[in-house]
């Protein structure tokens, strides 16, 4: 297989593509390159283990509304680029969120709530712990994608959610999170300032931050976020019917999906593709 692309937008399957349609790919900038195909194929699985990926798979596939997202063939683009085949994983329909980050935040919410209540995420869904869950408020700063997942997870498990957005986030993204039941707070500054405000208010009000970015002393929640994204990779492997990609390209925003892809391939299939690249247009 020539390449798999992970994308939030269905770009069609036409046999021929114009230069205008090819432009986004030609102008993409490679921010990260990883993989030495001469390695032993085991990879570094210290962050995400087989057990962690399996737990995420078992839980997420049991959620109401779960269906695998499609792997779409881009025959025209493959021909234009001179490769045998090209596909992309279309995350846009995941749980109706219209986001390529639908998995990680919601999964991290489920893990955090279970830890704080002292039960399993599966038992949380029974409603037996609802009184306790309602006393736990999750919060996050976002441009809109991760926040939608956190808000959806909070709604699914029945806990309050406060989302911080910065001045440049669109009203439509704010409304999407409000429609999921989140309280959305817009600040006047940029993304970094929204992160700081979220953290400060969480400490003041006893909220629990569900961030997709790790830092010293804050590792476990981002790890759960990454484990959630491994479901996407597991689906891709199953949908490829045993024909593994030579290259995988993933979005490089917060890089959680890309890191999850890099970590998931070794335990799932015994080796990584020859190259896994994280790109930002």
Give an overview in words:
With 281 residues, the chain is α/β, with parallel strands linked by helices. It folds into 2 domains: 148 residues, 3-Layer(aba) Sandwich (Rossmann fold), CATH 3.40.50; 108 residues, Rossmann fold (3-Layer(aba) Sandwich). 42% of the residues lie in helices and 16% in strands. The protein has 11 helices and 10 strands. The strands form 2 sheets. A 6-stranded mixed beta sheet has the order 2-10-9-1-4-3, with helices on both faces. A 4-stranded parallel beta sheet has the order 7-6-5-8, sandwiched between helices. Helix 2 packs across helix 10 and helix 4 packs across helix 7. The radius of gyration is 19 Å and the shape is globular.
Distance between the termini: 23 Å
Please state the oligomeric state of the protein chains shown: single chain
The CATH class of the largest domain, by name, is Alpha Beta
Shape label: globular
What is the number of domains?
A: 2
Task: Kindly identify the CATH topology of the largest domain.
Answer: Rossmann fold
Helix content: 40-55%
Topology:
Blueprint: E1 3-7, H1 19-26, E2 29-34, H2 50-60, E3 71-73, H3 75-81, E4 86-90, H4 104-117, H5 121-124, H6 130-133, E5 138-141, H7 145-157, E6 161-165, H8 171-179, E7 183-186, H9 191-205, E8 208-209, H10 220-239, E9 247-251, H11 256-269, E10 275-280
Parallel strand pairs: 1-4, 1-9, 5-6, 5-8, 6-7, 9-10
Antiparallel strand pairs: 2-10, 3-4
Helix pairs in contact: 2-10, 4-7, 4-10, 7-8, 10-11
């Amino acid at each position: 297989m020539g390449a798999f692309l992970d994308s939030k937008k269905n770009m069609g399957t036409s046999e021929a593509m114009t230069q205008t349609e090819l432009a986004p790919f030609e102008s993409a900038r490679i921010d990260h390159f990883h993989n030495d195909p001469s390695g032993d194929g085991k990879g570094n699985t210290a962050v995400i283990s087989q057990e962690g990926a399996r737990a995420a798979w078992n839980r997420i596939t049991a959620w109401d509304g779960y269906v695998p997202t499609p792997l779409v063939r881009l025959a025209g683009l493959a021909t234009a680029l001179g490769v045998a085949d090209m596909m992309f994983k279309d995350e846009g329909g995941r749980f109706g969120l219209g986001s390529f980050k639908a998995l990680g935040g919601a999964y991290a919410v489920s893990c955090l709530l279970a830890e704080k209540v002292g039960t399993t995420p599966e038992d949380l869904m029974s409603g037996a712990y609802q009184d306790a869950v309602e006393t736990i408020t999750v919060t996050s700063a976002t441009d809109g994608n991760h926040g939608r997942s956190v808000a959806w997870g909070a709604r699914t498990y029945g806990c309050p959610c406060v989302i911080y957005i910065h001045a440049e986030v669109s009203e439509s993204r704010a409304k999407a999170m409000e429609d999921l039941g989140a309280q959305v707070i817009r600040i006047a500054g940029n993304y970094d300032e929204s992160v700081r405000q979220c953290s400060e208010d969480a400490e003041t009000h006893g909220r629990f931050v569900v961030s997709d970015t790790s830092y010293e002393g804050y590792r476990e929640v981002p790890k759960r976020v990454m484990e959630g994204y491994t479901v996407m990779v597991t689906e891709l492997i199953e949908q490829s019917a045993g024909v593994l990609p030579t290259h995988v390209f993933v979005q490089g925003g917060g890089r959680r999906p890309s890191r999850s892809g890099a970590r998931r391939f070794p335990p799932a299939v015994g080796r990584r593709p020859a190259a896994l690249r994280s790109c930002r247009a």
